[in-house]
Task: structure prediction
Amino acid sequence: MGTLNQDGSAAFVAARYGLDLRDSSDFAEWVGLLHELPKESFQPPEGLANQTTIWVVEDDTYLGAASLRHSLVNDYLVEVGGNIGYGIRPSARGRGLAKLALKSALLEGRDLGMERVLVTCKQPNVASARTIEACGGVLESVRPPESSAPELGVTDAIRRYWVQL
Result:
C-alpha cells in the first residue's frame, strides 16, 4: 500500500480512530466511517468536521479523493485546510482528475446548501493553484508560514481561495 499521508486524503480520519489502513478489517471500518461522516446525525470526535468523501476510481483502481468538510470546525481548517482537500496519486496526475475531484466536491457543497467554500494549497503547488482557479477559485491571500500559529505546523506559504457555489 502507498503512503497514507497524502495532502487532501481522508487518512487522518483513520489515524484519529486508531485504524491501520493496511489491515483489511480496519480498512473496512474506515470505509464505514467515511459513509457515516456526511450524515448530520453522526457526531465526529472533537476537531473533526462532518465531511463527504468522493473517491476517484478507474475500474477497480483507486486514483485519488476529495474531502468536502461541511464546516470549518477548528483553527487548522480555518487557516490552512479549508473546506475541501483533494489528492490524486502521482501515477494518475496530468489527466484532469484533480479538477474532476474538485468539481465533484463543489457540486456536493452546492447540493448541501453551502454558499461558498475555502480551498487552499501550498504556494509551491502550481498545479493545484491552477486547478482551483480553473474551478472558480478567487485568491483571497497568500499567507506566509509565520502568520499561522506554530502548533498548526505550517512550513510553506498557503494560497487561500474562495469559491462561490
Observations:
- The CA atoms of residues 118 and 162 lie 5 Å apart.
